[in-house]
Amino acid sequence: MTTTRCLILGSGPAGYTAGIYAGRADLGPVLYEGIQPGGQLTITTEIENFPGYPDGVAGTAMMEDLKRQALRFGLKVVQGGIAKVDLSARPFRCVDDKGDVVMADTIIVATGASARWLGLDSEKHFYGQGVSACATCDGYFYKNQDVIVVGGGDTACEEACYLAGLCSKVYLVHRRDELRASKAMQHKVLTHPKIQMLWDSRVKEITGTDLDGVTGADIENVKTGAVEHIDVSGVFIAIGHKPSTDLFRGQLELDEQGYIVVKHPSCATSVPGVFAAGDVCDPNYRQAIVAAGRGCIAAMDVERFLQAQS
Fold first, then answer.
1. Per-residue pLDDT for 37 more than 70?
2. Where in the chain is the domain with CATH 3.50.50.60?
3. Scanning 9, 152, 175, 279, which has its CA 20 to 30 A from the CA of 98?
4. What are the residues facing 104 on neighbouring strands?
């Protein structure tokens, strides 16, 4: 059995930053990496908007930098994830995927969220080579080019408007004949001269080459079955994200989308001693720098919580 004053779940920017701060506070933090060590950034080819990397950095390299910095301050990193948690009493009893028990005085949940995908093989094949789920992250790479955004909600409309400020043309592909987004967002999209709506449509296939990446997409009209090929260099999927919170259902307060509810400006959750940071509680921004900042706050919250308990 392992005991720790601070257990961190997740190894993205939020988790590792929490590890840095908790380590420097001499809390002896233990971090479980989860099923994707380093988080979603490890499948991102290049990051240009994280401070401190003026020439850009590969996602895997940046996460290794954060990990090494956290290890320097005493963070213990464990491969694998936590399979069960009991948040009914402190210390919290957790069981990892090997069956080992971890007793934790506090927990920082930084398990992240994953993008919802269309389910196409070509989508997986070209991920990072023209397929993206974050316009803010990757839009700059498609300056003065034509791109597709898939979706019909506020997120899709926001992504389309953002890309329209960079790209030559944005096709917004939506399965229905009306948008689900707010009226204000609909107005922005429908009146933007660089955004073209493709109603009653879905992406049937993403085309390209291993050398050039995405070069186009086959768009199928869901009512008529007609297929049209469009030449684009980027396809942005904006059909939502799924927070990794199944482990905490029934134990932590979640919003209607499944994100952990925190008591802003802190990272405190509905259970005293449990804190959350990063995409697992952030449906709005989903940026590495924001997650890192919230990881810092979560660790400081932990330190103050433990001080108040002593």
1. yes
2. 2-114+241-309, 117-237
3. 279
4. 4, 92
Q: What is the pLDDT of residue 151?
A: 96
**What number is the average pLDDT over the span 122-141?**
92
The CB density around residue 266, as the number of other CB atoms within 10 Å, is 15
The catalytic residue among 6, 94, 105, 137 is 137
For residue 120, count other CB atoms closer than 10 A to its CB: 17
Third-level CATH fold of 117-237: FAD/NAD(P)-binding domain (3.50.50)
CATH 3.50.50.60 fits 2-114+241-309, yes or no: yes
Q: Are 147 and 159 in contact (CB under 8 A)?
A: no
Residue 26 annotated as catalytic: no
pTM (global) more than 0.85: no
Check pLDDT > 80 for residue 44.
no
94 catalytic residue (yes or no): no
- The average confidence (pLDDT) of the chain is 95
Strands (E), 87-240: 92-96, 101-104, 107-109, 113-115, 131-132, 146-150, 169-173, 195-198, 201-209, 213-221, 227-231, 234-237
pLDDT band of residue 286 (cuts 50, 70, 90) is confident
In 3D space, the residue among 79, 34, 40, 31 whose CA is nearest the CA of residue 60 turns out to be 40
Catalytic residue chosen out of the listed positions 97, 134, 200, 218: 134
Least confident span in 54-58, 107-111, 263-267:
54-58
The verdict on whether 138 is a catalytic residue reads yes
Q: Which of 138, 146, 279, 301 is catalytic?
A: 138
CA–CA separation, 11 vs 133, rounded Å? 20
